[in-house]
Records
---
Amino acid sequence: MNNSMSASKTEVRIKRDVGGMVCASLFLLLGAVCLYETTQMTDPDSFMFPRMVITGLMGLSLALIVTSVFKATVPVAEKSQSGAAPSTLRRVLLVAAMMGATLLMPWVGFLLSATGAFIALMLLAQYDPWTKGKLLLYSFVAVAIVAGFYGVFSYLLQVPLPEGSLIQFP
Amino acid sequence: MLEYLLQALTPLNLLLALAGVVAGTVIGSLPGLTATMAVAVLVPITFTMPVTSALIMLGAIYTGAIYGGAYAAILLNTPGTPSAIATTFDGYPMAKRGDGDLAVTLACIASVVGGLIGAFFLLLLSPPLAKVALAFGPAEYFWLALFGLTLIAALSQGNLIKGLIGGCFGLLLACVGSAAVSGDIRFTFGSTTMIGGIETVSALIGLYCVPVLIDLVAVPGKHLNVTGEQRGYRLKEALKISWQGKFNLLRSSVIGTFVGILPGAGGSIAGLVSYSEARRASGDKSRFGKGAPEGVQATESANNATVGGGFVPTLVLGIPGTPPDAVILGALLVHGLRVGPDMFTTQGSIVYTFIFGLFIATLLMLPAGLLIGRYAYRFIIAVPKGLLVPTVAFMTIIGAYSIRNNLSDVFIMLVLGALSWVLNRFGFSPSPIVLGLILGRIAEEGFVQSWTIGAATENLVGNFFGRPISMAIIAFIVLGLLYPLIAKQIRMRRLQKELTV
């Protein structure tokens, strides 16, 4: 009795792979668009290999969709019993901050946009409460890291980092 | 030979070798700064030095940079250099479970062993080995790339179809931009952002590092598991594991040397092929990808062995085996050296002193690498998340930008990173995508050129399947694919026999 109970407890529940099917459908669509693009190419050297790859991508995506429709393949994720749920908002904001800083670089330059992104990400990644000392220390580290890397890349490695068209430093 | 060894052991050469190893290791550990960049940036320093000292320093920078790539791969899941791609497969899981210190020490020992074996081949077998490089035609490169792609089966995390889809997606990404042979612009859909193609290092940073950042920022708590006790270098434990895996180290180093000899192949392919072989030869394959020390050993020994291997065609034929070799070749020309088959006889003192210098630099990598590795590990576990996340994010942006001084690469890196995180949630591992991206260009070039040659000589089948080296690689591919089935059959038969008895 006990054995059967423990067996049923450890039994892994399987569900249909809806996420996989969606991804496979998007790959199928991507393959179709790319395949159409290859019809515009005239040189066989340009389209021979990509067509082979696209055919493989589409065939495999189709196979994944068919398999997932007829068979449940992925284990149901167990809900976490302890710890906080991951924050989707922070995830989105992280990507947005990095993307935003990159978009701003041609206008405000590397130094300003990178410092802004650094501070934004620092606030995003900090879970413990801020104290005055911590805020001061972290701000100092942020400026030191950005300025330090700026110096190393622009002066030592001679990498021309983006200058802002709106704000320029002498 | 003894006089050359003594020349390599002068205080100046020793100092330059140490400085080169340290500088290379530090540069290589920063995501986005490759070994090529490390050598290229520091090459002007060597112009005023005596030629042997200059060569020793450049070799030391190169070997240090290849090893340095392992730190970020192990501690941040971001290959510091493309050579360390396969180091992430087991290095990062080791760090996640609290064995990051052990992984760093193992990587250091493996890099030293690989570097020494590569230098040994360079010292003793350079002229015959250079002939092997010449025997590799487009068909062989195509099959070699395909051999690398068989690793997808191992990296698919339980779903082969998803792994293969990821591999095809990576191959398709490799086709973006100008075509390998014809030069046509493909799959840019009118956008100027992608005309230059997808830069491999930026893509690697995106596919591996951005998902880690996305997950890091989402939850409180530490980045890596660490036990309370200080366990030092864990050198004794690492040496024991290294001794147990001596055949793995030897095999991977030999693979690394041979792949290094092939112009254009490089450390990333050496690491992937040796990882695949280490996994195939292992009794328990299920541990790979979940923090198997053998995975780290295989990759790190192979990528450092490419340093010695790459110098074989560079010094004997004047054909650079790897991109950093091309920079070093340029430096040799600046110093007025004539590279070619007779270099080992006419300028033997320079060549042999350099090779001994490479041995010394590799040996110096052990103390220097262990020390830097220890502090890198301590730094990563000590830095609070509020500083670690923005610092790593900042390094990904500046690293992706600095490769081609192009903001488009940063956008592509971020888009691929977000995509990789989403795909990973639905069971599509990033490793097959990376594999396709890296091997795509070599595979396409090899395929198209072989096809063209085969069509022109009216011997298409013979050109692809009839050459001895091609046949050997095809045999390895078939063996690699069928090995799990054969091994299963053998196990079943043994079990049946035991049951009958």
---
Amino acid sequence: MRPLSKFSLRVLSFATVALLAGPAVEAPAETCLSPYIKTLTEPEKILYLWALPGTPGEGEDFLAVIDVDLASASYGKVLKRVHVGSVGNEAHHMGYTDDRSRIWAASLNSNRFFIFDVRTDPRNPKLVRVVDDVAKVSGLSGPHTPYAIPGRILVSMASGPDGTGPGGIAEFTNDGDFVASHKTPDHPYETVIKPEFNRMITSSWVSQKTFESKPSDWDPKDFSHTLQVWDLKSRKIIQELEGDPIALAARWALKPGARYGYNISSGGNSIWNFKLGDDGLFTYRKAADVGRNCHPADLRQSPDDKYLYVSCFAGREIQAWDITDPEHIRLHDTVQGVVQPNMMHVTFDGQRLYFTNSAISTIDYSPNYSLQLIQIGPDGRLKLDPNFKIDFSKAPDGPTRPHDMLLN
Amino acid sequence: MTAPRRPAGSRAGASTSGATRRAWIATLSAAVALATCPALGALPGPVSPQPNLSVIAPAPDFRLVDSDGRQVRLSDFRGRAVLLAFVFTSCPGVCPLISHQMAGLQTALKRDGTFGGKAVLLSVTVDPETDTAAVLQQYAKRYRADSSGWKFLRESPERIRAVLDTYKEWTRPLPAGTIDHPARVYLVDPRGNIREIYSLSFFNETQAEIDVRAVLAEPDADAR
């Protein structure tokens, strides 16, 4: 065997350090985004909000640009609304492309994707493409969460092309061109990926036909109870994990090589733990009950894997869970008296948590729509910030339902 | 993992038959399967032996200049698999690691003569002002790049911008004097289609080798 040259040794040293340090990107910072997305490593200046009219079918959904730069004179103000040019969409979730140049904003009911350029001028997003034949090209409907992989977007789609039956994962280029569909036996809700294990997990909820109807009409037979474990690279499902119904948000622990994560079940009022074993198979067990009246809507995590945050849509509180011991998680703190809290977003430093309070227009129970902020102390305690609240019940265009957020 | 013996009569740099490539990919897949398949009771790694390589898009053609001053078009490599990386030589982050990994891939693909004849590596600079032909030559030498199958490409800033734009490879100067860019690697199949896009941060040369051999083993891979 030939001895290594000095240069080879230098490269090897670099490679070793890089591998030991995990992926050669900045340390995990902005949580709950795809690991392939360029991370934000400084305090946020802009919050993008994906919102829809208070009265469904009246007015256009829009992407709002909100100033969240503490040093700005317009801090806490809506700077701009970029309307989508059509009605009846039901703005819901959105996601960055891997290079953070575009936002994909999905509409639950109309099966459309709205692609915004946010790189050219982050304060003035431009709608560059509307993909409005999603059900036709993908054979799937009810787009939920766009999730970035290199050069492409995976979108969890709730159901078949007519809004019923099992859904799947639709794969598109960042520009909006269809690549492939990958069917599932359930109604996909969200996607999380851990590249070091080549594993993707999808959670699941209900079909498009169900979420378009009133909750009193929802048939429990349509509720999914499962997570699907995928071989990411082969796009094949290799294991199904069965738990409580309507398994919504899922989060993988952020530490490089972490083998576990959590998801919430809205139907079961519970937090579940999934864990990859030495045998390559996952176990899935209930980790905690969140309270009978909670009906959790979103799950977020701190950058240091110490806390989970749960929004109790019905329970009017936001919970912080201490997960320092992943096998024995415990309720750490709550903020109470917040009406129908829904989507949350934790900042790169884990010190702030923005939250909105509209789920979908068929299940909202209060018109007091708002965007608010919780300050998170070094001890993980939560405190509602009295100096930041945007009231969307009296917005200029009429009441507005605020849902998903991204920071920039 | 032990490399299969080179078939009698084969030589480095020469084309191999489809049967040889299929044998190679079967061997490589089996070896990786032993290491990664959860059904066999092992903790999975980042590599999958059975890649799904959907056609993502036609790869935009380009004409650039290699470090020896020769014009190179992407379409010159129809019939071969191309791994196309966007890097810059002064990069303090992931670029040195990706070049090191591509050097490893060069070695792996040379074992059965796939390198050069059936598979080509292209490193395109996103910083042509710094990365002159001489700088690229030195960089190639540092990684022991064999120019018969690994080329370092550049053009004038104006001309290369048009190429970078077609691959959505924007650049942004950072305060520290370095460059932010999307940092992707593309696998282009013998028919000129993009079949995989890798993040430089998560690039794995073993997976890339499996993917290269997979597109070369497809029935019509030899059709240009």
